[in-house]
From TrEMBL:
<dbReference type="InterPro" id="IPR011004">
    <property type="entry name" value="Trimer_LpxA-like_sf"/>
</dbReference>
<dbReference type="InterPro" id="IPR001451">
    <property type="entry name" value="Hexapep"/>
</dbReference>
<protein>
    <submittedName>
        <fullName>Gamma carbonic anhydrase family protein</fullName>
    </submittedName>
</protein>
<dbReference type="InterPro" id="IPR050484">
    <property type="entry name" value="Transf_Hexapept/Carb_Anhydrase"/>
</dbReference>
<dbReference type="InterPro" id="IPR047324">
    <property type="entry name" value="LbH_gamma_CA-like"/>
</dbReference>
<dbReference type="Pfam" id="PF14602">
    <property type="entry name" value="Hexapep_2"/>
</dbReference>
């Protein structure tokens, strides 16, 4: 069964299943489906998973003994309607709306992934860069304002989920 740490907000319409842990002060918004059934999902602290996003994993097999769990770090913003499958995300990352991130991908800390980006399997996204496109391309180094926004976006969502919790919004 999922375990949910203190201070989290999980919308009523979100569905969390299986071996999943949600860290302190994180939020999972409307219509999210997160299925830790054939491997585990770990979500860090102050991370937000926005509406309509799907999170899933890949099972262990002879050719891939660990399978592909889904690991998401702290202060990560996952925009609306993203698909994250069996990948590993560090800290302070923004995944733009509608992005697709596939098995075995590793996203290092402080990365901005543009809306609609497709990240093919097993790619490594280097810290401090903007990636956009289908398939993704390393576009340019992040501006200082964008680096700051990675943290600010997480703060904004902690405040928003606190409002929802205080007002009893589901
Ligand atoms: C990636 C993003 C930050 C780009 O911002 P920007 O300031 O316009 O970036 P730039 O001006 O440096 O654009 C760089 C180039 O990438 C292109 N580009 C911008 N966003 C793009 C995207 N999502 N996919 C493909 N190309 C994109 C621009 O057209 C530009 O192309 P050009 O060099 O040929 O003119 C922004 O478009 C984006 O996708 N934000 C995500 C927002 C989001 O989903 N938030 C989460 C929900 S709250």
């Amino acid at each position: 069964m999922p375990t949910i740490a203190d201070g989290c907000y999980v919308a009523d319409s979100a569905r969390l299943v299986g071996d999943l842990h949600l860290g302190n002060d994180s939020s999972v918004w409307h219509m999210v489906a997160a299925r830790g059934d054939v491997n585990h999902i770990r979500i860090g602290q102050r991370t937000n998973v926005q509406d309509g996003t799907i999170l899933h994993v890949t099972r262990r097999s002879e050719s891939n003994p660990g399978g592909f769990p889904l690991i998401i770090g702290d202060d990560v913003t996952i925009g609306h309607k993203c698909m994250l499958h069996g990948c590993t995300l560090g800290n302070r990352i923004l995944v733009g709306m509608g992005a697709i991130i596939m098995d075995g991908v590793v996203v290092e800390d402080d990365v901005f992934i543009g809306a609609g980006t497709l990240v093919p399997p097993n790619k490594i996204l280097e810290s401090g860069y903007l990636y956009v496109g289908n398939p993704m391309q390393k576009k340019r180094p992040l501006k200082d304002s964008e680096r700051a926004f990675l943290t600010q976006s997480a703060i904004n969502y902690v405040e928003l989920k606190n409002d929802y919790l205080e007002e009893g919004q589901r």
